Amino acid sequence: MLLPILITLFSQFQGLNGQAVNDVDANGITLLEKIEEMERQILNPFTLVSVVTPCGVNFNDNQNRGQQTSAEWVRIIFHDSITANIAGPGLGGLDASIGFESDRPENVGIFVNVTLGQFSQFSSVFLSMSDLIGVGLSDSLASCDPTARRIPLRVGRIDATGPGPAGVPGPTDNIEFATAAFAKAGFSQSEMIQAVACGHSLGGVHHTNFPDIVEDPKDASNTDGRAPFDSTPAIFDNTGVNEYLTGTGLKGGPLVVGPEATRSDLRIFASDDNATISAMSSPQSFEDTCFTIFEKMINTVPSAVKLSDPIVPRPWILRESHLDLNSAGAVTFSGTIIGHSSASLPDTASYSYGTSGGNTAPKTSQAGVAYPIVANTPIGFGTITDYNFADTLNNPDVTSINVQSSYSAPINQKIFILVSQGFHNQIRDSNNAITVNQQYVVRAAILISLAPAGTVLSAKLWHTAAQAGSIVPKILSTTVSMTLKTTLGSYAIYQAVVTVGDGVSALPGGTMTFQVTSGATLASAKVDPGNWPACTNDVLTSC
Ligand code: HEM
Ligand SMILES: *[C@@H]1O[C@H](CO)[C@@H](O)[C@H](O)[C@H]1NC(C)=O
Ligand SMILES: *[C@@H]1O[C@H](CO)[C@@H](O)[C@H](O)[C@H]1NC(C)=O
User: Does the predicted TM-score (pTM) go above 0.85?
Assistant: First the structure.
């Protein structure tokens, strides 16, 4: 019975309601590639989610500032998306324009640059900063919600290249201003009430940011002077709603009981005679309401953006895979399968290779290694296990790999990057000190039969680059011609040396991606050179 279910899931996934998963963005990346990258991101417990686990932690620096990383990641959703103009030109929304807006008074606090700096380490050509902001919300809620519930994520957001309009409502703004701001972004009055009640379940108001609202507690364990919104600032729950409604505990917090002029939460919650917030008083209604409204906030995007359907990580995918040539010139294929399940997973994974004559006999992966789930990281996908495999293909007709009869990925033996022959170089300044690693040697194999004399291959490297005014890196690409170096078996080996950046300042964090092409039709799989070793003696060409 399992197989038909999986196939149904798979075809729903592939269908994506008729969406063109093969449509490419400005960088030539398909929606399907982005979906797969997102699956890999959220099926890795050591990425973003570990930064907000447990919910109360301040990842940025010491624990005595009264800062809470998960709350910062939730607050940034509001400040980035609320300045959308839905009725107008359909601009704004969740587009990471907040990166250019950190110096505006309406965005006071450390949360913009700290948060985006944390997310920047995961930048790549596949996941935009605005998609990562969505991951941050989903991970924070999974960590802070007692049921570890996750917001379903879509991908395909496009980052803004400059600041958007101002207009984030603040604590001294009146109800008309706040209502109008939310309406402009496509949120009704009751949705505004819901969004504020949901957001203000976590974290609080800091004296350092709002000295007129919160007094300095002069507390060495709370040096930024945070006054929490409710009695459980590190649990995403209905406590704040009920403390407001019943006048108990913190009574709704500083924006309800603080100085008159800054009682924005009270003005908002009471604006429909408390009807909307009263309907959120049970744990279940609070959760359901909040997950719906947060999902609407992260999916408020410029009208030109086409989002994928919500991503449900497939039970089996490849974390990484690559072709290579061994010293005898035989083609090898190796990589890692990820399995995840809330039930148990097999000791090994089963896979086969697809050829024009059908699938090869099933093969068995190496023994699976379960991810150690550190400190109860709320990954939300059951057990996650990696299964390595490594084969010599010995069959030029292999064009795909099929994993557990539920997942398939193409294999292109015509042209591929030689991962075992990739290196980076350590650039030295005039004092012979190592500055930055921004030079790569990339080698690729192409079938001799497809590379007549005079064939030139191109190597393209997508990388992050700093952009003025925002801590968020942009994605650039560099393309270099490759030259024939040698032949091995039935393959011609080409090489290029690719230099990026200015050779002085380090590139911003993030992942690089290589692809090699010949003409318009032959393109290798994309490869992350992040683990390529350094050349010995800094002599790149002799690597
Ligand atoms: C008119 C609407 C809103 C106003 C006036 C407002 C105002 C504020 C203020 C003054 C703070 C204190 C920031 C600090 O001192 O660090 C704050 C914190 C916060 N807000 Fe709002 N907010 C509004 C709506 C929202 C919404 C819709 C969300 C939902 C995402 C949200 C999420 C948060 C979170 C999570 C914090 C805690 C941040 C932390 O502890 O670092 N807010 N808000
Ligand atoms: C709404 O609830 C607050 C807090 O419990 C209360 O102070 C206020 O009077 C209520 N407003 C209305 C119109 O019911
Ligand atoms: C955030 O970083 C950007 C880019 O480096 C910088 O221009 C901006 O002033 C910073 N903002 C704050 C509040 O530190």
Answer: yes
